[in-house]
Amino acid sequence: MADKLRLGIPKGSLQDATIALFKRAGWNIYADGRSYFPSIDDSEIECMLIRAQEMARYVDHGVLDAGLTGIDWVVESGLDVPSVTTLTYAKQSRRKVRWVLAVPEASSFEKAEDLEGKIIATELVEVSKRYFASKGVNVKVEFSWGATEVKPPRLADAIVEVTETGSSLKANHLDAQSQVGLMLNVKRGDLQAVLAVLPALNSPTVSQLSDSEWVAVNTIVDERTARDVIPRLKAAKATGIVEYPLNKVVL
């Protein structure tokens, strides 16, 4: 087929997790470690391995039709490429990773403002510059080619680094948010009270149950707010409330 979807697969730490994600969705991708063009069991797709940091650039240039990368690298690139959907997964888990501003445990620095005039090492240079600028803190942000966590205190005073499992560094989260699904049942007479509680990503899905007096409601909420929402749903007379993780959100 001449017109194939040219799909970018992130090479490096996310490669295996991405291939596993596609496998769960029913597509098998085969990468032998030597080729930048892994095969896939779909004649309408052509895959290419690209570093996540470069994905937005090649989509923007038209080399790729679509690619999987973090929103962090899209923002870092400064390019205006559309986001099709959100897939929450990482190298070692199916949770969002976090970029953190971190210093060694023994450091006297406690917050961003303490780093006035200091050196920050990171791969996420432009985002880090904007972060400190928004706080009115003057720092020197240097690009780190790797092993960023060992730069303080000799080569840098602090780092901005991505973390999935935590480390021995004191860290302040720059951004951390993910979504979970909520499923529940409610009587029609109580539906509006339940809907008023839900801070949904989009309008909740309401489905008729076999008993005409009852409906099922499915929606998506921020993970950090779910624990506050669930008691309010119970108070609004919702029953059978189930919170579940999301593999992907297709908008």
Describe the structure.
Strand 8 (119-122), helix 4 (125-134) and strand 9 form a beta-alpha-beta unit. This protein has 251 residues and is an alpha/beta fold. It is flat and about 65 Å long. The chain is 21% helix and 32% strand. It has a five-stranded mixed beta sheet, with helices on one face. The chain has a four-stranded antiparallel beta sheet with strand order 13-14-12-15. A three-stranded parallel beta sheet has the order 4-1-5.
List the helices and strands and how they pair.
Layout: E1 5-11, H1 15-25, E2 29-30, E3 39-40, E4 45-51, H2 55-60, E5 66-67, H3 71-77, E6 85-86, E7 98-104, E8 119-122, H4 125-134, E9 140-143, E10 158-163, E11 169-175, E12 179-187, H5 191-195, E13 205-208, E14 214-222, H6 223-235, E15 239-245, E16 249-250
Parallel strand pairs: 1-4, 1-5, 8-9, 8-10
Antiparallel strand pairs: 2-3, 6-16, 7-10, 7-11, 12-14, 12-15, 13-14
